[in-house]
Structure to design on (258 residues):
């Protein structure tokens, strides 16, 4: 099993006949943000949280600060797992990673996801969403994360947790600011985008810019909440995802072995 795949989804259904949903985290986040998603999305899909290096169970590994290098490594490592029917979900930085990986695989003629589910991130031709610079001091970085709702209140009582989080977030901001997909990087994959109505970092209009990057259809939902709306376990996002993914679920005649 590739080092990128994590067991944070919780108990999964048998893989045969299930669409795999690879989930990429936001800046500073790890695979644990998708804990419980298997239960919320049900047995039609197999949730596959992607654990990037330098966080949680991979904290001892060096982090990527360059998008192209990360995507090259993801493609190499996840390649065998992507031979079965799958979709990508990415929130914030994760949306950028999911799209860039799809573009790379399209260029080299590899199997593509059945759809891209991109949440809370501006389209690539727009400046990277950056409320604070990657080289900001710790107090500025912390204040920015608090204002966005990116730090659970319990973490504020644990300085050791914050000291681990801030370097990860800083390097992820560098990754988001590194060269990424160009304005003509269209892929033959449907894109379904999601925006938070009260997101102070990324506006719905900026999320709608993803429409130019699909050669196979685009839809968008504006949902309640701020930048980290996916943290709400009862958020309408899960109903939206369930409905979209149900239309992609594999029939018995198209099921493939695990």
């Amino acid at each position: 099993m590739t080092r990128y795949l994590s067991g944070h989804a919780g108990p999964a259904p048998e893989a045969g006949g299930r669409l795999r949903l690879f989930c990429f985290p936001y800046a500073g986040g790890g695979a644990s943000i998708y804990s419980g998603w298997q239960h919320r999305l049900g047995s039609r899909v197999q949730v596959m949280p992607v654990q990037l290096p330098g966080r949680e169970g991979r904290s001892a590994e060096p982090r990527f600060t360059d998008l192209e290098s990360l995507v090259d490594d993801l493609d190499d490592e996840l390649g065998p797992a992507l031979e079965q029917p799958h979709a990508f979900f990415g929130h914030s930085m994760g949306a950028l990673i999911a799209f860039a990986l799809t573009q790379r695989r399209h260029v080299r003629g590899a199997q593509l996801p059945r759809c891209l589910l991109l949440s809370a991130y501006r389209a690539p031709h727009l400046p990277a969403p950056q409320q604070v610079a990657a080289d900001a001091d710790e107090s500025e970085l912390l204040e920015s994360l608090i204002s966005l709702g990116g730090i659970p209140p319990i973490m504020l009582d644990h300085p050791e947790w914050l000291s681990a989080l801030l370097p990860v977030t800083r390097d992820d901001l560098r990754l988001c600011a590194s060269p990424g997909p160009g304005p003509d990087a269209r892929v033959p994959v449907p894109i379904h985008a999601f925006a938070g109505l009260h997101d102070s970092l990324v506006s719905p209009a900026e999320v709608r810019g993803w429409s130019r990057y699909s050669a196979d259809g685009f839809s968008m939902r504006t949902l309640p909440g701020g930048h980290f709306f996916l943290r709400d376990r009862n958020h309408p996002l899960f109903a939206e995802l369930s409905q979209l993914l149900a239309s992609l679920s594999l029939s018995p005649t198209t099921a493939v072995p695990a």
User: Anything to note?
Assistant: The chain has seven helices and six strands. Residues 149 and 228 are 7 Å apart (CA to CA). Helices lie at 37-41, 67-78, 93-107, 138-148, 159-177, 204-208, 237-246.
